[in-house]
Every structure is written in structure tokens, then in C-alpha cells.
Amino acid sequence: MKIAILGYGTVGSGCMEALKGTDAEVVRILDKRAIPEVSGILTDDFEDILGDPEIELVAELMGGEHPAYDFVKAALLAGKHAVTANKQMLSRHFAELTGLAEEKGVCLEYSATAGGGIPWLENLRRVSTADDILEIGGVMNGTTNFILDAMQTKGESYEEALKKAQELGYAEADPTADVMGYDVRAKLAISCNLAFGGDMDPESIPTTGITGITEEDVRKAKTDGKVIRLVARARLGNGLIYPDISPQLVGPDSPMYMLSGPENLFYLIGEKCGTLSFRGFGAGKGPTGVNVAADILKIVNSVRKD
Ligand code: HSE
């Protein structure tokens, strides 16, 4: 299948690498910058992709709400399959875009919007078809876990650790979204939509980030044998969903205690299946690129079988 990638940043280039030697042929890359390694297939005009009937799938990996939303919507309207890793955009337009894909009979996959390289949403969706989900949660941001871990285990300052997270490609273009908890808010909203149905407004989620955590807080946690984690949680109670995101003290009895660097841990509690948890790298070029490539290949393979 011929496909196009929108945005050749950390995730776009990771996805391109993961697709090498597969049945997904990247024939166009949209990016405004001159990128020598892909110059032969580079364009800065989305119409080159939308108007090409041979391109059956568009992978939006550019980030930001606009024009990412407009491009995904236009691709779906044109009858093309779409994949996105854009949590902020998808969490704000979830019902519309998933509804549009269904209406047009095309696929919209978005596994990498929550969990970086962890196939969390894929498994959450799978379990929710056969069980009632009572609660979901975990550590859903690699950058903040990297910062808190570096402060606690290496004695680094907040600023030093954030700079490293940016250099390693974990942080968003504007890391405010990571440290204020807005990145987790979008991931939790999308996860809630799959777990409980509905269309949660990410901005309705009570959210506290890590900007108020001091080096003294981290030292005190260590003295008490605990670590600080940015924990997200949403549970069902009396038919209502109660979501919350805040830094929490976590002891060695919790699976979240062991997470190091940019690792994430997602869990779900199902009425019949009990607790399932998924741990791995929640950010970074390689892991996130693989998750996006897996979404693309899922569509390529399912369309081929039809
Ligand atoms: N900035 C995000 C994080 C990237 O640090 O978790 C992956 O979603």
C-alpha cells in the first residue's frame, strides 16, 4: 500500500525506519524543512498527497491541533485511511474523527497517542469489548518520569533533567504540556473514551503537573523510602467517571515505584479480568515509531485480506 507521512520529526523518522522492508511504501513526506535523506519524496503541499489517488493511507505525525486536524479530516473525507500519534488533536476531536472514519468506511488508528511504544490503547480496546472496565490509570508521561527519576536517583536539578529529556526527544516541542500534565490529560481522555465510551473533554480533568515539586520534596520522599510519580487515574462510580491527574508519593509496594527514566505504566481493572498492567518506554523515537508503524501495518494487512 502506498502511504504518506505528515511530519518528519522524532516520531516520523522513527516510523519511517520501522517500516523499512514492509508492505507499506512511503511515497510522500510532508514537511516544510529541507531534509536531504528524504528529498526525493518530500513536499510542502498537502494537496500533493490528498489529490493523489494512489496514496491510500495518511500518517499524521506532525503534532499541534491545526493544520493536523484539518489534514486528518480531509484525508478521511477523501476515503483514505489515517493514523495519528497526535494526542492533543485527537482528544479534542475524538468523536468527530472516529465517527467520520466509520461513516466513510475507512480505518483510523491512534495507538501511539497514549503510551509511546506501549500497545496500551490496543489492549484497552480489546478488553473493553468483552469486559466492563472499572478503573484505568498509571504513569502516562515519559518526560516527567524521566525528570522525577533523575532528580531522585541522580540528584539532578529539575532544569538539568528537563533539558536532557528534550535532547533525548521525549518532551513535546513545547514541554509545558508535559510538565503541567496537559499531555497526560489528553492521554487519559482518549483512554477513558475507549474504556467507558463517550467523548471526554480533556480540559474537564482535574490536573496538577510537576512544576510545584521541589528538590526538597524529592529528598523527603527518598528519606521516607518513596518516590514521586505523576499519576493519572479514572474510575467509575455510580455510572459517573472520576478522572484525576496529580503527583503522588509511591512506595515499593506499587508497580509504579520501579519505573525508571522515560518508562510508563498503564493499568486497567476489569470486572472479570481483574488488573492488567502494561509497562515500557512511553516516549522516544524508536518505541513510538514502532507503535505507529504497527498501526499502519495493521491497516495494510487488514485491507489486503478484504
Ligand atoms: N512527551 C510525551 C512523553 C511523548 O514524554 O510522554 C510521548 O507521548
**Count of domains:** 2
Write down the Rg. 19 Å
- Low-confidence segments: none
> Total number of β-strand segments?
11
**Sheet with most strands:** 6 strands, parallel
User: What small-molecule ligands were found?
Assistant: L-homoserine
Q: On the 0-100 scale, what is the average pLDDT?
A: 97
Arrangement of strands in the largest sheet: 3-2-1-4-5-6
CATH superfamily of the largest domain: Dihydrodipicolinate Reductase, domain 2
- What is the string of SSEs from the N terminus onward? EHEEHEHEHHEHEHHHHHEEEEH
Total count of helical runs of at least 4 residues: 12
Tell the overall outline.
globular
Any idea of the CATH class of the largest domain? Alpha Beta
Helix content: 25-40%
Structural class: alpha/beta
Q: Termini, distance in Å?
A: 13 Å
CATH arch. level architecture of the largest domain: 2-Layer Sandwich
Instruction: Bin the strand percentage.
Output: 15-25%
Which topology of the largest domain does CATH recognise?
Answer: Dihydrodipicolinate Reductase, domain 2
List the helices and strands and how they pair.
Elements: E1 2-6, H1 10-19, E2 25-30, E3 42-43, H2 47-50, E4 55-60, H3 68-77, E5 81-84, H4 87-92, H5 94-104, E6 108-109, H6 120-128, E7 133-139, H7 142-153, H8 158-167, H9 176-179, H10 182-196, H11 215-223, E8 227-237, E9 240-250, E10 263-270, E11 274-281, H12 285-305
Helix pairs in contact: 1-12, 3-5, 6-10, 7-8
Bound molecules: L-homoserine.
